[in-house]
């Protein structure tokens, strides 16, 4: 008899739990995810999102099908990859919450400030804290980039907050050799994603020259490890999805006219050669 009562109570508890889930879900917005590419980073981001957001409130489309979508049905739209974000830029989305992720250069696309962004970089303060723990004697960091952008500015502030001397080192295919004069002054070199704008031979020359100066090279991109970088602090794509979902669920802190806000996904993935 006691066993029967226990099982009945357990069953009612489960039903109540399911009911609560429905009540909770009903307060959430219908979400549209547009996948610019069918690649692993995108798919892992989607998986992470669905681990934190009800799947019945989420529709997922490939970018090639965007003309088939009635975007007005959705209050929240997520664009994954630069291609998807660029397409959404041309729509009238004034009263919708639009979020982009996996976008290399949001400034160049014209979506920085137009939509809410999730960076391809983890939080720089966390990265530099970890570097200081691994290399207690470092005093300075050189930020190597092609064009100054929101990420460079954020990294500069983070370095200063941690009492690291920070030197900005812009490069292109013409002045990359001259950049070595500045690099000589720092302990660690951080290569931003747009430094890959260098032609492969020039990039190899730059990295090999930095290594010959016994400098530590880090980046957000694992691909640079094969060129000689020492470590990569990259975003965790699954966690990127959970970050996006949790921000939407806490949308009392968001406004639907979109902002200049850029989030830096955490935790990061640390990889060495």
What are the SSEs and their pairings?
Elements: H1 2-26, E1 31-35, H2 40-50, E2 58-62, E3 76-80, H3 82-89, E4 97-101, H4 106-109, E5 116-118, H5 124-134, E6 140-145, H6 150-161, E7 165-170, H7 179-183, E8 188-191, H8 200-212, E9 216-219, E10 231-235, H9 237-249, E11 262-263, E12 268-272
Parallel strand pairs: 1-2, 1-3, 3-4, 4-5, 5-11, 6-7, 6-8, 8-9, 9-10
Antiparallel strand pairs: 10-12
Helix pairs in contact: 2-9
Approximately how much beta-strand content do the residues carry? 15-25%
Rg result: 22 Å
- Arrangement of strands in the largest sheet: 2-1-3-4-5-11
Q: How many strand elements?
A: 12
Brief description of this entry?
With 273 residues, the protein is an alpha/beta fold. The protein has helices spanning 2-26, 40-50, 82-89, 106-109, 124-134, 150-161, 179-183, 200-212, 237-249; strands at residues 31-35, 58-62, 76-80, 97-101, 116-118, 140-145, 165-170, 188-191, 216-219, 231-235, 262-263, 268-272.
């Amino acid at each position: 008899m006691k066993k029967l009562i226990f099982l009945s109570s357990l069953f009612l508890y489960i039903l109540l739990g399911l009911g609560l889930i429905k009540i909770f879900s009903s307060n959430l917005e219908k979400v549209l995810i547009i996948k610019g590419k069918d690649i692993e980073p995108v798919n892992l981001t989607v998986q992470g999102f669905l681990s934190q957001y009800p799947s019945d409130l989420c529709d997922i489309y490939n970018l090639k099908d965007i003309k088939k979508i009635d975007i007005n049905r959705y209050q929240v739209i997520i664009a994954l990859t630069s291609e998807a974000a660029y397409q959404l830029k041309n729509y009238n989305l004034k009263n919708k919450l639009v979020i982009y992720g996996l976008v290399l250069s949001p400034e160049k696309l014209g979506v920085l400030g137009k939509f809410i962004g999730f960076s391809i970089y983890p939080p720089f303060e966390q990265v530099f804290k970890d570097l200081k723990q691994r290399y207690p004697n470092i005093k300075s960091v050189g930020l190597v980039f092609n064009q100054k952008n929101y990420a460079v500015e954020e990294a500069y502030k983070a370095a200063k907050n941690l009492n690291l001397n920070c030197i900005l080192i812009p490069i292109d295919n013409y002045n990359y050799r001259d950049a070595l004069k500045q690099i000589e002054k720092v302990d660690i070199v951080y290569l931003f994603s747009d430094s890959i704008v260098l032609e492969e031979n020039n990039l190899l020359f730059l990295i090999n020259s930095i290594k010959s100066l016994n400098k530590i090279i880090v980046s957000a991109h694992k691909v640079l490890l094969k060129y000689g970088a020492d470590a990569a602090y990259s975003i965790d794509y699954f966690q990127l999805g959970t970050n996006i979902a949790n921000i939407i669920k806490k949308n009392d802190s968001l406004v639907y006219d979109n902002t200049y806000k850029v989030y830096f996904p955490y935790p990061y993935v640390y990889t060495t050669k």
